[in-house]
Amino acid sequence: MTPALPEAGSPTAGRGGTPKIPAGGEHRGSSQSAASGAAISSLTQPPFITAPWLFARVQGHAAPAGAGRCFFCGVACDPARPAPVLPGSFTALDTVAGGNALCDGCVLARNETANITLPDGVQRVAQRVRAYSWVVSERDGAIAATKAHRTWLRGQCLFPPPPPYVISLAHSGQRHLLYRARVGFGYATEPLVANLEGEAFVVPQKDLRRRLDLCAHVAVALGAPALSEAPSALDLVVIAEFHQDAEWAKQWREVYADPLTRLAAWLTPPKKELIDVFRNTL
């Protein structure tokens, strides 16, 4: 019997505080909720929107406008705030748009003293935005999460918020990821758009669910660290004997190096949690 991993629903927690953004020109954008089709249509028309744009919008900051282009995310913005001068140690130039300005969203996304809200409604002050995973939508606002909220994050990937939304998963907590994140415009019946350490995944939820199931069967037999390694012949034997079914080992040998496996492995609970799940289904 295949166990069902716990899945958390969407939060209704409030929004955390944000730093004051320096005044620029007038910002104009849609004031409609993303819950309406008209609003979604307007948001997806040029000029395009980015994850930082949505990050700012859901926290009450006006949409950007103007002849400038954000250095990091590329969204249209007021040119009054110039692009930053980066230190010589910055080596991710291939990830930036290279515009001549800095948008409100990227100011917020690079904040080192932000007030944030976690999935359970707990609020933290003076936090680095880059240290957290983020789920951003007009319905729920900007919700920060840690690896301790992995079950909730897994639920968000399987049942994403109404579009537009951003799911940005941070592993190291050392990199600025929101400006790199891809925005999702599909509903739950359409492919998921999620980002892990800046890598975008566009995948049907049914495929993610199956890969999560496979990763759970591997992790409960070998431990979660084994999900990031090539399986040895002994590993495959252990998987087959643990589940008394060689099919799980065969499947793992075929897809362990697949990109989707990286996302599913990150979302998979540790072995201790999985043992309880499997024990309750046997």
Provide a descriptive summary of the structure in words.
The strands form 3 sheets. A 5-stranded mixed β-sheet has the order 6-5-7-8-9, with helices on both faces. The chain is about 30% helix and about 15% strand. By secondary structure, the chain is of the alpha+beta class. Helix 5 (about 205-220) crosses helix 6 (about 235-245), helix 5 packs across helix 7 and helix 6 crosses helix 7 (about 245-255). It has 2 domains: about 35-205, no CATH class; about 205-280, no CATH class. It contains 9 helices and 9 strands. A hairpin with a 2-residue loop joins strand 8 (about 190-195) and strand 9 (about 200-205).
